[in-house]
Amino acid sequence: MIRLVTIIVLIFLAPAKAELNYTEFQSFDRQDPEMGSAALNGYLQGMHWANFSVREQTGTELYCKPENLTVNIENLRGGMKLYVEKEPELATAAVGKVVLAGLQLLFPCE
Fold first, then answer.
1. Contact indicator for 21, 93 with CB cutoff of 8 Å
2. pTM over cut 0.85
3. I want to staple 36 with a disulfide (CB 3.0 to 4.6 A). Which of 7, 29, 80, 109 is the partner?
4. Cβ pair 26, 88 in contact under 8 A
């Protein structure tokens, strides 16, 4: 019983980390590019729907991708890399923030 209580207490004391930062993600992506691409695809789909929702609710957009253009994972990786080179402090930011920043760099709203 004491062992069970100790395990439960340790679980709750362990720091929770919900998302990798950009540098950690880069390391993960180099080790398993297929999984990295799948993760970025998930982020991209989430950003697409967030952009759609914001546009529907407010009339503004998070980023302004031309309708006839499809963003692929390599474009997204390039935008993320360019933004982190431009703003080095984003290397320790959550991947989701860097994904959005990369999309905003590639597709700015005028």
1. yes
2. no
3. 29
4. no
